[in-house]
């Protein structure tokens, strides 16, 4: 089957590569000539485990190609995926659909035969119907179907998520489109992956509802962690006890400095706006948005309090700045709130992140970037762990203690055990754990 992916960003590139791995002929289109040229040479602009290898292998097999010629790519396709960005619109937080409209216009002008047009971009409820209306206005004689096929890719494990998903969601209103989508996902049907077919609106809402619910779990457990610190409870045991209940599940119950990334912040805001449009406000999600914002703002103040209320002229070593491990994505990362707040109080910041420097150079000015964690830690007055990269769980504690000016470790991801850190001679602060020295939220309020 011939597939065209319009938008060679994170979602488009991963999806196109995996469809090619399934055996389909895939063309990824993007108007960024430099990006297309790099991809054609096997140079991947993002970090995602296994992606570079799969791109090169499928390009060599002639199943994956890259182009800026959107007209030719559309005219050849059986399925056309819209995989462009839908960032929050300035002012109200609603999803900006300008790129989706631009692609729809191009499809309407270039489509010459029947094709399924599938939205892989995260779009508000009703967008599919708007695309249908728009295409009919451009050319009433077009033969097409529009389906919603939202992505559920976790950065850092996106290939696995696509190739072995929990489920595939397809919103389609015609038997012809359903049949074509069945054929497209035949490799997953063979693996007995469940595919849920719904109408367009339901599929669009499933994506937003899923992300909003996961964001709610994160915000919830962060607030429970604060309560743990005040009542001598252990958040890790609380999370484990909750997760053992199959109705709740163990995932997304790990406390930290707040959620970030390309999905949760954007999608929760967009969903609350959509709900207001339909006069059905989502007060729970609105609270989650506020709670997460306050969480990220408060963390820097809590770090300052740990350091005797003053960080002026002090050096802080920060390990991890991406919003999660196994990605180079800095979008809405807690580090973008924490580090500038510390700098504004006079702190000097030394940073190490395995993949974050490429994006971080522009986003975090005036920090010192280091090539390894020990260089960042040397001579620092405290160590702050923001992102739970796997390598941070195997640091040489004795070496760290010797390198720090004072043995203060602030672990925002609870990577280490308090008893272990106390035995190693550290003053150790973590999230939601009363043993040793908890990072007490009651000490200061967010600005």
Could you characterize the architecture of this molecule?
It is a single chain. The protein is of the alpha/beta class and 447 residues long. It is globular, with a radius of gyration of 24 Å. The protein folds into two domains: 2-198, NAD(P)-binding Rossmann-like Domain (Rossmann fold), CATH 3.40.50; 237-438, NAD(P)-binding Rossmann-like Domain (Rossmann fold). It is 44% helix and 14% strand. It has 18 helices and 15 strands. It has helices spanning 10-22, 33-40, 51-60, 70-76, 98-110, 127-138, 158-163, 175-184, 186-190, 200-231, 235-243, 264-277, 283-306, 335-344, 357-363, 373-377, 397-403, 418-423; strands at residues 2-6, 25-29, 64-67, 79-82, 115-119, 144-148, 168-171, 195-198, 315-319, 348-352, 368-369, 382-385, 408-411, 427-430, 437-438. Strands 11-10-9-12-13-14-15 form a seven-stranded parallel β-sheet.
Q: Examine the secondary-structure arrangement and name the CATH architecture of the largest domain.
A: 3-Layer(aba) Sandwich
Q: In CATH, what is the class of the largest domain?
A: Alpha Beta
Overall pLDDT score: 95
Share of residues in strands: 5-15%
Regions with little confidence, pLDDT below 50 for 5+ residues: 441-447
Amount of helix: 40-55%
How many strands, what sense, and barrel or not for the largest sheet?
A: 7 strands, parallel
Inertia-based shape: globular
- Helices, by number, come to 18
* Relevant CATH superfamily of the largest domain: NAD(P)-binding Rossmann-like Domain
Number of individual domains: 2
